[in-house]
Design a protein that fits this description.
Bound molecules: flavin mononucleotide
Radius of gyration: 19 Å
Order of helices and strands: EHEHHEHEHEHHH
Helix content: 40-55%
Strand order of the largest sheet: 2-1-3-4-5
Largest sheet: 5 strands, parallel
Shape: globular
CATH architecture: 3-Layer(aba) Sandwich
Structural class: alpha/beta
Distance between the termini: 19 Å
CATH topology: Rossmann fold
CATH superfamily: Flavodoxin domain
Number of helices: 8
């Protein structure tokens, strides 16, 4: 199986430790590709909206985004990690998520995303790891992913792994290990079940595409939906 990891920080700190613990059981059998932000995508979306209107190939940062996107689409499991920065993901992670705005269900979602599995690992010092996880879950589910496992931990007291109490370190590692065991047991030869909320988002977006088509006949998004057959009976979760 293939795993792609997107690390929201270059620091080999607590998030890194927890991510390593998560990957441990997979190392023997999975092919793991990791990206580290901002190194692997050191570019902000400038809001030109060219990806939406003219196509993703016109993005000034396509060279970075393309490589990561290819790995995401080829993977069986996506792992996204970020420490909490002011209650949310790191700026580097947010910059990457912005680059995938055109892949939201309301625009041109990749059919491969429906049926994929994902895991989110976040942690914070005192508060905000859940809202951080929510940032990531929001994007992943709007990319079409239904099965998303979350670990969000709180350190309470210290930001250096070695200086945390033994008890706190054990608790954090036990939480990640539980999630890891659950995901190592899954059958990756079969797609994950698409949840009702994802289907409803898709159907609403389909209605919107048809509706917009009446006033603006030839948008890139509409053509994409048309080619996929999604404006007719085809659905991305049916293979
Ligand atoms: C810019 C910045 C903002 C932060 N904001 C929060 C926050 O809102 N809540 C919190 O509990 N910790 C916050 N922290 C602390 C980090 O989440 C915490 O130290 C975390 O363990 C860092 O993970 P790392 O070792 O993987 O870098 C912040 C740290 C930085 C650098």
């Amino acid at each position: 199986m293939k795993i792609v990891v997107i690390n929201g920080t270059e620091k080999k700190g607590v998030t890194y430790r927890l991510k390593e613990a998560f990957l441990e059981p997979f190392r023997a059998f999975a092919e793991i590709t990791e990206y580290v932000l901002p190194k692997d995508c050191p570019a902000f979306c400038q809001g030109c909206t060219s990806c939406f209107a003219k196509g993703e190939a016109t993005c000034k940062d396509r060279a970075y985004v393309e490589v990561i996107e290819k790995s995401l689409l080829e993977s069986d499991l996506i792992v996204m990690t970020s420490p909490t920065y002011v209650k949310h993901v790191t700026g580097a992670m947010k910059a990457l998520l912005d680059h995938f705005g055109y892949r939201w269900i309301s625009h041109r979602p990749a059919a491969e995303m429906f049926g994929k599995r994902a895991v989110i690992i976040t942690q914070c010092l005192g508060g905000g790891s859940r809202t951080t996880a929510k940032d990531l879950k929001h994007s992943l589910s709007w990319w079409g992913i239904s099965e998303i496992g979350v670990f969000s931990g709180t350190l309470y007291g210290n930001v250096v792994w070695e200086q945390l109490s033994e008890q706190r370190r054990k608790k954090l590692l036990a939480g990640v290990a539980k999630l890891s065991r659950a995901y190592a047991k899954k059958d990756y030869t079969r797609p994950a079940r698409t949840r009702l909320i994802v289907k409803l988002r898709f159907l609403f977006s389909r209605w919107l595409q048809k509706r917009l088509h009446r006033s603006i006949p030839e948008t890139l998004d509409w053509r994409y939906w048309q080619e996929k057959g999604w404006l007719d009976a085809a659905r991305p979760w049916r293979r």
